[in-house]
Amino acid sequence: HNMRAKGMGWGRMPLFVWSMLTYSYLLVAALPTIAAAATMLLTDRHFGTDFFDATGGGDPVLWQHLFWFFGHPEVYIVALPAFGIASAIIPTMARRPMIGYTYIVLAEMAIALIGFGVWVHHMFADGLPGLTLSFFSASSMMVVIPTGVQVFAWLATLVTGKPILRTSGLFVLGFIFIFVIGGLSGPMLGLVPFDQQVHDTYFVVAHLHYVLVGGSMFPIFGAFYHWFPKMTGRMMSETLGKTSFWLMFIGFNVAFFPQHILGLLGMPRRIYTYEAGLGWEVGNLISSIGAFVLALGVLFTVIAFVRSQRSGAPAGNDPWDGETLEWASTSPPPAYNFAAIPTIRSKEPMWDQPELHEQEQKPALGLELAEGHQVLITSVLDAKPQAIAHMPHANPWPFALTMALLVLAYAILLDAWLLAGVGAVGTLVGLAGWFWPSGETQET
Ligand code: HEM
Ligand SMILES: [Cu+2]
Fold first, then answer.
1. Same domain for 116 and 159?
2. What is the pLDDT of residues 344-358, one digit of tens each?
3. What is the pLDDT at residue 312?
4. Which residues, chain by chain, have CB under 5 Å from ion ligand 2?
């Protein structure tokens, strides 16, 4: 709120930023549950508590509740940023503003909210009371509405625009296609009698790959092609990119569509090998072939990446004629992004404010950002520039902290108490180092 450009308000925020905002709240609300559950599991395993152990009066179903109370919101934590990526690429690709901006924002918030009320659909085969199942079946169906709103807004924007099909756009179209199929198997699983038949079969594996790979991996590849020129200043090869897309798209569907059928034929998941002669051989063979094609597709993107690093054409500030502000700065942008933060008067500033295409902007109130990690601090209500803050530089402490935590967690798992002590001390040192006042962060 106090670090924004003048004129930047709720109604002008890029949809990608909206999705990241919604995602952040979801993350903060969902993670404590899994942290608590994991700690309880740890004390069950090592310190003799019985939270989840029926022999000591605990309840394993409690574990499932806690896990899925985190787990279902988590699938939207994965999906929301990807929805935001799609909403960022689609207007640039369709050459027109997004249709239903407000509805997309509201839909994402609705998804985040409803997402907290559906977790029991992962426990339909537990033998819970019928009324419970009906409630969670109904709430699961509700998610379809805001998800549909988004899909139709994207499609309407594409249909009424003049789309230019680049690699990033192909990945977004692939995302919509695959995600919609996953969005169809989801509500099927939300039907209690159907789910009790296919729970823990490959039908669920097919569903989760359609929604997660389609809903997250494809948009992330699209984002990579869209923003790579901005991040590095070099273009990626469209030929390699499009080849990569088609191999990935075909490979993905060949790999995962047959798993729907395998699931309906009763093939259970979470087993590493199966007896021959159960009728699942052909489906699995096709699936394996698809997996290799998918991997080959990914390889093409790796090649495109390496080649572009070495010899990609210069990208310039705005290779796609994009509508949002990042295309006004150089590629790659300086650490402080803009020497003078521009004033925003539109949802698509780069299309509506020709002055943004000129190199030099006048600094507001003589506050010019010039070097390193500087940001402009503005007043909360009307974004008046007030001060320049110097943000800390990148340092190794957060990484050191994570490594120490990793050692600590594994040491406890393995009952290696000496190592656990080392990990604990390392964690404390990491925390102290990270938060030690460095004198770098200051306002002028
Ligand atoms: C209307 C939309 C959706 C509905 C009604 C739905 C419903 C379900 C149900 C009932 C299951 C449990 C199946 C079982 O184990 O028997 C399931 C599993 C799963 N869903 Fe969805 N789903 C939807 C959308 C999504 C989305 C958008 C994502 C991710 C972005 C997702 C990710 C998953 C995952 C990862 C699993 C597997 C969890 C496991 O390991 O058991 N679903 N879904
Ligand atoms: Cu779920």
1. yes
2. 888 888 888 887 777
3. 87
4. 72
Give the pLDDT confidence of 190-208 residue by residue, as tens digits. Answer: 999 999 999 999 999 999 9
Three-class DSSP category at 345: coil
Nearest to 132 by CA among 113, 115, 146, 119: 119
Angle CA(422)–CA(67)–CA(112) in degrees, nearest 5? 115
In this structure, the residue with its CA closest to atom 12 of ligand 1 is: 122
Q: How far is the CA of 266 from the centre of ligand 2 (A)?
A: 21
What's the complex ipTM?
Answer: 0.89
**Domains: count for the chain:** 3
Local confidence band at 363 (pLDDT 50, 70, 90 cut-offs): low
- Which mutation among 188, 207, 216, 260 tests ligand 1's pocket best, with the greatest number of atoms within 8 A of CB? 207
Q: Give the nearest ligand 1 atom to 216 CA.
A: 30
Q: Is residue 179 a part of any domain in this protein? A: yes
Ligand 1 residue neighbourhood (C-beta within 6 Å):
75, 78-79, 121-122, 140, 143-144, 183, 186-187, 189-190, 195, 199, 204, 207-208, 211-212, 215
Q: Structural domain of residue 410, as residue ranges? A: 397-443
Q: Is 71 helix (H, G, I), strand (E, B) or coil?
A: helix
247 Cα–ligand 2 center, Å: 29
The answer for 230, left when phi > 0, alpha when psi is -120 to 50, beta otherwise, is alpha
Are 186 and 78 members of one domain? yes
